[in-house]
Amino acid sequence: MTTLFVATTGGHLTQLEGLADRLPPDGDALWMTPSNAQSTSLLAGRDVEFIHDVNSRDLWGVLRCVPIAHRLWRKRKPTRVVSTGSGIAVGVLPYLALRGVECHYIESAARVSGPSLTGRILRWAPGVRVYTQHPYWARGPWHYGGSQFDRYEAVTATPRIGDRIRVVVTVGGSQFPFRRLIAALVPLLASGGALERALGRPVDVLWQTGAGQVADLPIDPTPFLPAADLKAAVSAADIVISHAGTGSVVTALDAGRSPVLIAREERHGEATDDHQRELAGELDRRGLARHRDAGSITPDDLMAALTTSVRQRQSPAPFALRSRSSRRSS
């Protein structure tokens, strides 16, 4: 038996990797995802089928997944498929479900109030079981199996600050720029800036800037980092400031950091919708992060993050997949 784990890169892949150990075991594991710095680092040493990029609303990219799914079905004989999306799931799950493979689609934890476009499509695909990570919209075909964030809890911490304040700013691996966040943080984090004045220590910043054009800003940008390098930087940081993408959020929480989150907004061309605002609000409600607007972050927000730590629960509940005998309701 073989379980095929399917996800595009970024938060979708990070979530799936985190959920995989909470699923009932079912033989060998095979991963299917695009190849980039994150995926090659995160899945190093695992059995991986690297494929082309599948971008947002990329119909051609979705269709190109179908022959790959067919080839894997013939050669690897997967008995179960689990996916956290996004578009790659539309190209793989319906086809393999028609071939009799047990298929499960777990909607991103970022979707706090309802499903994504991928979820709205797959809920109608015969043989594909669909899950939400938020119990308050588990209805109709949507089953609540657990949440990516159930394994974390916030605790008060005594900060151990060295001679310098180490800050990581990350906008993730999105194809959309988030210059608005970077530009808003420059006066706060610059040498002689507001944070340095508040804490009386110099500030060192890792600027992970993504696809945005930031050459005119007075920073040393790093567009993208391998997952292992970003994880190491976040683990060593005193403060993490991040877009509200699930991959970046999970990286911070896994490192024990309570990040300050700024949501991408559709009206600024930073995302295809405003689901990040919902996720940031949910994590703020849970006490795991602080949700702020780009222009309203203060030194007090950053100092509050210094006094909050996040720890992982010893034994998070398994993610409950529906059995073969369970029926879908409409």
UniProtKB/TrEMBL annotation:
Residues 266-330 are annotated as: Disordered. Residues 266-294 have a biased composition (Basic and acidic residues). Residues 167-318 form the Glycosyl transferase family 28 C-terminal domain. Residues 306-315 have a biased composition (Polar residues). InterPro entries: Glyco_trans_28_C (IPR007235). Pfam families: Glyco_tran_28_C. This is Glycosyltransferase. It comes from Saccharopolyspora oryzae.
